[in-house]
# Entry
Amino acid sequence: MAQAFRITALPGDGIGAEVMEAALAVLEHVGASATVAFEVTTRPIGGAAIEAHGRPIDEATLEVCRAADAILLGAVGGPQWDRLPTESRPERALLRLREALGLFTNLRPAKVYAALVQASSLKEEVVADTDLVVVRELTGGIYFGQPRGYDDQRGWNTLVYTRNEVERIARVAMELALKRRGKVTSVHKANVLESSQFWRDVVHQVAEEYPGVTLDDMYVDNAAMQLVRQPGQFDVILTQNMFGDILSDVAAMITGSLGMLPSASLGDKHALYEPVHGSAPDIAGQGQANPLAMIASVAMMLTISLERPELGARLEQAIEQTLAAGYRTADIAASGAQVIGTDEMTRQVLESYDRINAATESHQEAIKED
Ligand code: NAD
# Structure
């Protein structure tokens, strides 16, 4: 019998809704060709939710998210809602979701696809073997510490981490490293900040539980430099909220395009997968959006939350083969190259997926006959 999963789809605004269509087509396809079934519930979020019921996210949507095995999000926002007060803007829905679902980890893989190595702003030989994940603590640190404020003489924020906050994010990084190349780089500023000395020590204590993982420490300023000098040296980068915010954007740009980057936000009970990009109002409604970041987010969901890594890997491979065959949306096309739209790119990925499936099945048949 097929394994059934409940998925909440939050398409959002602009190209968020367009790439979500691609994600749902992928789920339907994977469901039809494997022993899994997806029961998808779609809810408005962001600007779409403001139009539907006056708020960027409502309690009913949060309930549907809580009941799901995993959540897929497109993107929110658009110029029509830019004049609303901060509390009512579409982007508020993202903070509310993280808080309500306890999503304390942000995972951002940055991988350079061989076919796109020229799209990076760095030299080919520097970026060629980049395949890293930034594990960013998402609900603590200086963005949330109290007291905070400013007057006409001073401005202040508080950087505090508790043992529990550091231990749980360190464990996520160690577990992830075990499934990858076994290396964690803990990034901090322990030469200057006491909160970083605490971070460093707690991460080392957690690492003692993981003899299969090699742990290195790196100061954040050096990490920024090393990321653009030799990104291939990193496997898993573990860091606190603000450092992760900055470093994950640096890592992202190594790969060349926003339209290629997936992400996951994880908590103890819930998980949300989304492309790194926004709603791209400049190209919304034109069918030009690159769906690969969203499709790669589906691959992460299959691997991490639904524990079907073989399906996630096949989808990843399908993306790679589609790019290797030369298919490009406008954002990743070299000048003069032939460009395809969102639907055609999605169709090509699904065709590659079918070819990989067929090859895997005939390989397994051959093994059985042996
Ligand atoms: P953006 O990521 O939407 O777009 C930046 C540039 O990248 C644009 O030129 C866009 O056309 C291009 N781009 C992005 N994704 C693409 C894709 N998949 N295919 C092809 N091209 C792509 O960032 P922005 O313009 O700064 O923000 C637009 C809106 O999105 C704002 O309202 C912002 O608040 C919101 N936003 C939302 C999220 C989210 O929902 N997680 C994240 C970032 C920005």
